[in-house]
Specification:
Shape: globular
Pfam family, one: NTP_transferase
Protein name: Nucleotidyl transferase domain-containing protein
Structural class: alpha/beta
Strand content: 25-35%
Radius of gyration: 18 Å
CATH class: Alpha Beta
Distance between the termini: 27 Å
Helix content: 25-40%
Organism: Cyclobacterium qasimii M12-11B
């Protein structure tokens, strides 16, 4: 059986952070956050890494990462553009905003033929998450059975502003039944809430959310492409529309084309949305090295 692939979404603009956080250094030796994900993936049985990047950071990404661990695991780089997998009839020169996470995933269709995990470049997920993903993608995944590592919303917020999270509904059997992307979640003195468009929604602290830590059978690309073409047709006039992975997940569930199992493994998370988050992330990584979770130098 083929070893699973790790697909890293690293094409974000980092507008709230103020720079390219996917290639910024956070570890004791200036390691990027995604290097910890790759380290954990290698020791969890993954066999290849695919980066989705913007053209502007392609060469710098190669210069940083290939010398560090290119001899330990095969690497591929794919560029997400506003024309990649966009039929000419839907290409609009006035569009500036990237199309989102599901489009980024679809850009990797030609280089992934095996089960794969999808993660964000700027999130630290923890070794347990990759062990759970590696085991599922090696032994349990099927064309109609995928997975997601769930995290309690109380553990995945920022002290410095709102965050976007896929808020999940889960069946008693542990399968995802639906997800809504909430784009303005924050913690207040009264609890955790989502406030947008004049509406306020209270969210239970233990409610599982998606941190874009998914595991898919490669058949997901066919469903994603079908939904992608429908999305483009429906959003021809909306130049800020985004095609998210939760949209794909919801569709295959609602249409009865697959199930998504929620995996235990979301034990630890931290990430960077705002520049102020950097100090906290650096402190957490230093602590993990001191505890022996990671060697003095990753590579």
């Amino acid at each position: 059986m083929n070893k699973p692939t790790l697909l890293i979404l690293a094409a974000g603009m980092g507008s709230r952070y103020g720079g390219d956080k996917q290639i910024d250094g956070f570890g004791p030796n200036a390691e990027t956050i995604l290097e910890y994900s790759i380290y954990d993936a290698i020791r969890s049985g993954f066999g290849k890494v695919v980066f989705i990047v913007r053209q502007e950071i392609l060469e710098e990404s190669k210069e940083i990462f290939i010398p560090k661990f290119g001899n330990l695991i095969p690497l591929e780089f794919v560029v997400q553009t506003l024309t990649n997998r966009v039929p000419e009839a839907f290409q609009d020169p006035d569009r500036k905003k990237p199309y989102g996470t599901a489009h980024a995933m679809l850009c990797a269709k030609d280089v992934i033929k095996e089960p794969f995990a999808v993660i964000n470049a700027d999130d630290f997920y923890g070794e347990e998450a990759f062990q759970a993903l590696g085991n599922f993608l090696t032994h349990d995944v099927k064309p109609d059975l995928h997975c997601m590592v769930g995290y309690a919303v109380k553990n995945v917020l920022s002290d410095y502003g709102t965050v976007s999270r896929g808020v999940c509904d889960v069946s008693p059997e542990g399968f995802l039944t639906g997800m809504i992307e909430r784009t303005a979640i924050s913690k207040k003195e009264t609890g955790i809430s989502h406030e947008a468009d004049g509406e306020k929604l209270e969210i239970s602290p233990d409610n599982p959310v998606s941190m874009n830590c998914w595991g898919f059978h490669h058949s997901i690309f066919e469903e994603t492409e079908r939904l992608w073409l429908s999305f483009l047709e429906e959003n021809k006039e909306n130049l800020k529309s985004e095609f998210y992975i939760p949209k794909v997940a919801n569709a295959i569930i609602q249409e009865g084309k697959g199930k998504i199992q929620i995996l235990e493994g979301g034990k630890i998370w931290f990430g960077v949305t705002y520049s102020q988050d950097k100090e906290h992330v650096m402190k957490e990584l230093k602590s993990l090295h001191s505890e022996g979770k990671y060697p003095a130098k990753l590579w």
